[in-house]
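Appendix B, record 7
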Amino acid sequence: MDIQTKIKVLSYLRFIPYFNKLWANKVLESASTKIHSIERDTVVERFVLKGRILRMVKKFTNANAKSKFIKGKIKNNAEIHQRVLAEFGNEMIELGLILTPDLVLKDA
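Structure tokens (predicted):
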């Protein structure tokens, strides 16, 4: 018996109290697996976005300069904050990330 047929049978039997409990467990189990997969996806997307933000900040401030004599660009936190919000603001809102004025990424 395939899963759709089982669900149909359970949906007909859900009016009997014992089978109603089985129906609720089946529905909750399928919903919880979907929720867990969605949560995993958002966690991965947040991690990727944090990496992209760090890469952009390093490039923006020229933090990867190899020379002792050529210093990186000096940027204050307000400039970096505005630049990050301009480039990644919409994605940060969708994923629930907040950038504090001290340039710390936090979950909303």
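Remarks on this record: Residues 10 and 16 are 10 Å apart (CA to CA). Strands lie at 97-99, 105-107.
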